């Protein structure tokens, strides 16, 4: 097995899963799926007349350098806590209020992995806010924990009083929600665009040491 991000073949076990962690770039299986999705659905957006303008939230150390290299000057990172991402030149932006600095249709792509569950409020409002800053034909490419197909989304973790309550209800102290089948349906119905299948087959998952059907990605394209 070779890491599709950095080319290393040196892997270690992580949280009980063998060969999960790339010792070179630090990627986990879900990051390697992310990079495969970007190769198919992000890097192909580039047109000759302009370089892409891409916003990457919570920029993972294993993905950020590779994205920065491929996308170049139009690549922007942002997070509410940029000190957590010292490897990146990360803008300090609180979502949604600080996103007003971006005009409508500013970005070719917005990338966020395991970000939505940390934002207080309703995920639908957040997806619509992200969609606003996409150009026509632009794409939001993202992932969330789960989603769990046999349950409905639960939100409101920001109203729980303690980390222990959030850990019990949402499986992590700083998670405010858990996504269910209605999340996928909401995205399908979201006005102004459509869902693009991620096209990642289980054979590729196997090559990247991802369990079958795990680490699904969501790609939403804004209508032209
Ligand atoms: Zn690697």
Question: Which features does this protein show?
Answer:
single chain, 224 residues, alpha/beta, Rossmann fold, two-stranded antiparallel ribbon, globular, binds zinc ion
Overview of the molecule:
The chain has 224 residues and is of the alpha/beta class. It has one domain (49-222): Vaccinia Virus protein VP39 (Rossmann fold, 3-Layer(aba) Sandwich). 24% of the residues lie in helices and 21% in strands. Strands 5-4-3-6-7-9-8 form a 7-stranded mixed beta sheet, with helices on both faces. A two-stranded antiparallel sheet has the order 1-2. It is globular and about 40 Å long. Bound molecules: zinc ion. The site of zinc ion has 8 residues, from loops.
Ranges where pLDDT stays below 50 over 5 or more residues in a row are none
Molecular shape: globular
Report the mean per-residue pLDDT as an integer. Answer: 93
Superfamily (CATH H level) name: Vaccinia Virus protein VP39
Largest sheet: spatial strand order: 5-4-3-6-7-9-8
